[in-house]
Amino acid sequence: MDNYFVLSGAICRHPERSESPAGIPHTVLTLEHRSMQQESGLNRQAYVRMQVVLSGTVLQQQAQHLTLGNQVRVAGFLNRHQNRSGQAKLVLHAQQIEQLS
């Protein structure tokens, strides 16, 4: 998968489902990733929480049974989202999702 970002982790908040004014279904997941990585020859614990947006009917069918605590692997692209107060954050827009547990 060229130029895709891949993140695996546990769903740490209940999925939020909605529909756009154009009728496109969306699900927002919050993933918590923890792993041990090598940096400059030393072990380093990596930790991140990131929102994942699943859009469209195909991904909605795959996400239908996802719940709090499920382990998943998501591939997609990163995008910047800005909330109403102007605070920006990175969000992963899923192109593929795989349930691991």
UniProtKB/TrEMBL annotation:
Entry keywords, A to Z: DNA replication, DNA-binding, Primosome
SUPFAM superfamilies: Nucleic acid-binding proteins (SSF50249)
Pfam families in the cross-refs: SSB_1
Matches recorded under InterPro entries: NA-bd_OB-fold, Primosome_PriB/ssb, Prisomal_replication_PriB
Self-association and partners: Homodimer. Interacts with PriA and DnaT. Component of the replication restart primosome. Primosome assembly occurs via a 'hand-off' mechanism. PriA binds to replication forks, subsequently PriB then DnaT bind; DnaT then displaces ssDNA to generate the helicase loading substrate.
Free-text function comment from the UniProt entry: Involved in the restart of stalled replication forks, which reloads the replicative helicase on sites other than the origin of replication; the PriA-PriB pathway is the major replication restart pathway. During primosome assembly it facilitates complex formation between PriA and DnaT on DNA; stabilizes PriA on DNA. Stimulates the DNA unwinding activity of PriA helicase.
NCBIfam families xref list: PriB_gamma (TIGR04418)
Similarity field: Belongs to the PriB family.
Full protein name: Replication restart protein PriB
Encoding gene (name): priB
